[in-house]
Amino acid sequence: MNDQIQEELDFLLDSTEEHMQKSIKHLEVELSHVRASRANVSMVDMIRVDYYGVLSPLQQISNVSTPDARTIAIQPWEKKMLGEIEKAILAANIGLTPVNNGELIRLILPPLTEERRKDLVKQIKHMGENTKVTIRTARKDANLELKKLLKNGLPEDIEKDKEAEIQRMTDKYSAEIDKHINIKEQEIMTV
Question: How many distinct structural domains can be found in the chain?
């Protein structure tokens, strides 16, 4: 086997694993935005506020904290931004109504109903399945590249070994997805 094929093989395995890792990271971010029973500052991560004509992340113009398990407190560094922050929260449609007391904004999370918990579990399982599809697509793409390398002089036994290695990678990341989903499901279903 020549050096060029070896380099292509190494690159293929590295890029496949990197793609799978990115899929897991994306799932982790998505799951952090799903509301479980506790307030979490990551629930407002994606909110952008019009700060003097520039859309800025909420965390860059205010202090965001969770004073208790069911409240997110947002204290802007400039009081005149309260109205803009309130508008941005409503526009983000996160299912929470801001309460503005002139000093800070509170987002109070209502307790989750049993039906809502079940809907959230369905939602996260769907996210997990979509991530698994991404992982399997990466495996399929890698195996197709292996077939091309086989035509270009890669020995068949090495191709079979690498195919098995890619399958082990796929199994490892699929198990990691299941682990993340199970943890989040426990979090959501805990009253």
Answer: 2
DSSP-derived secondary structure for 47-93: -EEEETTEEEEHHHHEEEEEEETTEEEEEESSGGGHHHHHHHHHHHT
* pLDDT, tens digit, 9 for 90 and up, residues 82-106: 989 999 988 887 778 889 998 899 9
Range of the domain at 93: 41-108
Whole-model pTM: value is 0.73
Which of 74, 69, 82 has the alpha carbon at shortest distance from 106?
74
CATH number at residue 167: 1.10.132.20
Residue 97 sits in a domain whose CATH number is 3.30.1360.40
Written as six digits, the tokens of 77 are 């560094």
